[in-house]
Structure formats: C-alpha cells, structure tokens
Amino acid sequence: MLNVTSDGNKYAAVSSMPQKVYIDSLYYLKRQPSRSGDSGYDIYITFKDPPEPGNYYRLNVHAGYFIPSDSIDGRRYRLYSDKLTNGSEMSERVRAGRLITTGDTISVDLLSIDKSTYDYFNTLRDILSSDGAATSLAPANPNTNLSSGALGYFAAYTMDRKTIILQ
Predict the structure, then answer these.
(1) Is 112:90 a contact under the CB 8 Å cutoff?
(2) Per residue in 48-89, pLDDT tens?
(3) Given this structure, which CATH class describes domain 16-165?
(4) How much is the pTM?
(5) CA-CA distance, 105 to 138, in Å (whole number)?
(6) Where along the chain do its domains lie?
C-alpha cells in the first residue's frame, strides 16, 4: 500500500505481490544468414505458469548498455496473461537485432506482476504504438492504480533473472 501527501494532495495506491515464477530455460539459436545477408540470434525463454488463474507477467530482455532495456528487437513491452494458457508451459522467442553479436551478454528478467500493473503497461503499449491514423486510439493516459489523477503506477512484483553469453 502506498500513501503520499504532497502539497496538500493525497495519493494512494495498492499493489499485491504475486507468487514468484522462475525461468525454466534460457537459450539461443544462431540464425542462418538470409538472402539479404542478415543473420543474428533467436533467444528463447520458457517458464511454467502456476495452476491458479489470474497470473500476469512482464518480460525484460537486456543486451548491454547500447541497447535500451525491453527493445532488443524493437518491442517496448512484453506482457503476458494466463487467461488462455493457465497452468501451461510458456515460451517466448526474441529475435535479436543486428546490434547483438557473438560474445554479448543477454539478461532476461521475468517479472510476476499484478493485474493493475499489467493494465498500466498494456494501455501504455497501446498508446505508444498508436500511429496517429484516423483509426488510432485517441490520446489518453494509461490506466493507473494511483488515485487523485496521478500519472504512473505503483507495483509490488517478484523477479527471476537468467543470463547467457552468445557464442
């Protein structure tokens, strides 16, 4: 629970810490060069969703200082819900771009998050991916669990991290 008073304004938020879920495996496969000469790595992450429904995840993939967190392949946020896969083995492939080379260290963080944190990042992703076309979403702020019109989110989460070095 968060309670803050600033300049006479009161802000509050609640977040529940989910059960920790562990990464079962982290491995990579080197892609063969395409006709255009592009090659690279595919990174695979697997984990087992608990049997209880209502689990939410955020996956962060880091590849050193030169590639921003969460954007190893251009995707800003990787979010998962067990709505359709409850209790299943989950697997994700990350296509590493041309900036990733042999010898680089790849770290993967699996964050178990609550629904309000999932909703925040899910709506933020929709806003950031809007292209401004007539059929796009109207500008808005992402859903938040903070009161009194505050922007952002408050989260309690668990995290498991695994790291590999590309050979």
Answers:
(1) no
(2) 999 999 999 999 888 765 444 445 555 667 899 999 999 999
(3) mainly beta
(4) 0.84
(5) 39
(6) 16-165
